Amino acid sequence: MKKANLAKQTVLWLLVAGLIMPSIGIAKPSKTTVDVISKGEFVIFLFKNHHKDKDFQCSAEITANVKDDEGNVALHTISVWDVTLPAGSLEIEIEAGKDVIAALRNEMIQPRIVKFVENSRSYECGLKTASVTADKKVFRDRLKDWSLGPEMVRIPAGRFRMGDIQGGGYKNEQPVHWVSVNKFAMGKYEVTVGEFRQFVKVTRYKTDAEKKGGCYVYDGNSVSEKKDANWRNPYFSQKENQPVVCVSWNDAIAYAEWLSQQTGQQYRLPTEAEWEYAARAGTETKYWWGNDIGKNRAACRGCGAKWGWDAKKMTAPVGSFQSNPFGLYDTVGNVWEWTCSEYEGKYNGKEKLCLSKNYANYRVLRGGSWNYLPYDSRAAYRNRSNPDYRFFNVGLRLVRVARTS
Predict the structure, then answer these.
(1) Looking at the structure, do residues 187 and 114 belong to the same domain, yes or no?
(2) How many CA atoms lie within 13 A of 222 on its CB side?
(3) Which among 332, 331, 300 has a CA at the least distance from the CA of 315?
(4) Taking a C-beta distance cutoff of 8 angstroms, is the pair 315, 241 a contact?
(5) What's the mean pLDDT in 154-163?
């Protein structure tokens, strides 16, 4: 069965290769080079930028001939995208193709890259544009492959009143109290499907939903746990620029730890106090724009928007609505966001602290979601769940701790 399938695949790949290979001819800027080395189970792209004063962003691909122990052969194109080459950089090595070989192991016995298709190597580079806005409030850290991490917004230090300032909320939103917050940076958007996919692709991380029996989703009739539901399949359509869902607190911590390791900076979930401070952005109303939800301001149940429960379009692409005064998007509705703080029935100091991942206590969720009412999306509203909770309306947003020196 394997050989028959592979024979068909090989013929298909040969036909495709024959059609596309002659058309590859990409102009290459002077003084930027790329080479490729086969390591059997993956390839290494070697990039070099000889310019002394210009940064470039490059993409490259090559078609590899894969063979297994039984003599089966397949052709696969291996690519890397958006690799940043700083001016005068030393040689940058990018590994690629591990996912290709991993997928082929389902159909081949010990597949390995034996050679490259002649003249199939191609690459293109363009001048790198600045990754920081003119006001310097928004920035992106570089990862180890010189790609860019999520957009982060610098949040100033300050003092604010936390809790049910307007009245009419729940008892767990009391007492209203003053909290001082140090400066930090927070994700401009909720973490997207594309950003989380980058993490999974590099690390091969398996989420709690994939390991522990699925995610709670809405199947058109009711909400229940489905074994095949996870961040890749939350039972509704998701594009790369929509917030990732079906991720647990444990998954969020794993993503933050990876981003910290990649950038050399400290990324983590926000404390509950940091989250409310950033969401309020200097305001004391139910929502940052006022006490009425209005229309088309957020994705929720009853928000009168293009996305949300009423529109049956679930999550909105991040940044679809106006940002708050700090420049943060979707702090009202869209998806619940994990915090690092332990939940307690009324405020007693834990809202300012992060809980260790070794404790099983409830964690706080904030912000409301696309299928919750506006009341539940107020700046003061508090939700909670276990660290391995997976749901089709729960995502995350990270903070980056400011350097003290």
Answers:
(1) no
(2) 3
(3) 300
(4) no
(5) 95
